[in-house]
Amino acid sequence: MSSLAAIKHKHPLLVFAKYAIPSMLGMMLMAVNVVMDGVFVGHALGATALAAVNIVIPVYSFYVAMSLWIGVGATTRYSRAMGAGDTQTARRIFTQAVMLLLAVSVVVSTVLGMFGDKLLTMLGANAEITPMAAEYLHIFLLFGFVLTLENMLSLFVRNDGSPVLAMVALIMTAIVNIILNYYFLFVLNWGIMAAALGLIISAAVGILVMLTHFLHKNNNLKLTFSFGNVWYFKSFFYIGFPSFLAEMGISVFTIAYNIAIVSVAGTMGAAAFSIVNYTHSIALLLFLGLSSATQPLISYYQGAKMPKQQWQIVKYGIVSSLVIGVLIIAVGRVFTTQIIGLFGQFTPELIALATESIRLFFIAYLFMGTNFVLITFMQTSGRVNFAIFITAIREFVLVVLFLVILTPLFGTSGVWLAVPVAEGIICLLLCVYLLQEKRQH
């Protein structure tokens, strides 16, 4: 019996812990990895380099979004097939997902590369920032397929019953990236391109770690070119579309917040947002790790026709997200000064803005984790249309709307409160929808 099939015979709480703990630990280290990028770049290369990295973040988010779009859709179909005992179909799904992702990654890199510096201008770069941002972006465009493949392999390895190996791969990726960032930036003084190169090399190391899964006796991830008469590309894009929207929403969030905060606080506001954006990545990745842990379990129980166990996983995910949210808010309030100090020595004006941003923005974490879990549940249990709708509203409408409404009314406080208000409304909509559905059934 494979480790994935053994889920059916274990208590859902034990299964949830087996998947959630390594997933969140791995994501936590990836979050530390992201923050350390900012710390190293800020201290080694200065504020302009930090701004250049922030400008390119939407492009990085787009590569992650592609891998989630195809990866979540494919792994959902994969786990359903495994839950139904159809191993051959599961292997076809894996093979087609790998082929599709690599092809799409190459096409996207080629198309983005054709824009040149115009792409950076569209993302908000000025003449001072563009040279550094162009160096950083160049590495992404050359080796973006490495990032997308690492992300999707992590999803498949987790869905194939090896969440601990997926965690180990994330740990190795984070450790290698931190070491390379220090060596490239402080020892060799290579400049901003080295920071991007370290990210790519560390992702390649993560892929190598995950490839050891293919040597395991319980591995079901085998490439097969016996496609039969069924191609699954359409379902990959359909099921995974909410994940794509959610990740693309990070780009919209970054661009919209840059515009809003600069309009009321200028350069100091942009710097304060850079700090809160780096710290925000920790919470974001923790919640993503939690929701990613629920995805293979919900998908498997869906295929095995075990709805009671599905709901238990959702409940465990919601409780965990609430606990994590409260802890993050507490840390943000108690250690505000220390968090800001990680990124350098700043003026009192900037410290005051960053303090306000952390204390107000972090309120969103009361709702954000629950939203992640519930959207993942809908996405992987057949409620894809509503998942797409609620994700689109969450990522592209409410945040921008409340930035437009609250910023003129409350200034910088309105900017920082836009996300908490939007997340609270989304959480309310999700709960109302699920309660109505429960009454109907």
From TrEMBL:
Any one GO MF annotation of this record: antiporter activity
A single Gene Ontology CC term: plasma membrane
Compartment annotation: Cell membrane
Membrane topology: Multi-pass membrane protein
Keyword Membrane: yes
Main location: membrane
Biological process, per Gene Ontology: response to antibiotic
Keyword Thylakoid among record annotations: no
Keywords: Antibiotic resistance, Cell membrane, Membrane, Transmembrane, Transmembrane helix, Transport
Transmembrane segments: 12-32, 44-72, 93-116, 136-157, 164-184, 190-215, 236-261, 281-301, 313-346, 358-377, 384-409, 415-435
Domain of life: Bacteria
Alphabetical list of Pfam families matching this protein: MatE
Family from the record: Belongs to the multi antimicrobial extrusion (MATE) (TC 2.A.66.1) family. MepA subfamily.
PANTHER family attached to this UniProt entry: SPORULATION PROTEIN YKVU
Stated name of the protein: Multidrug export protein MepA
Protein source organism: Brochothrix campestris FSL F6-1037
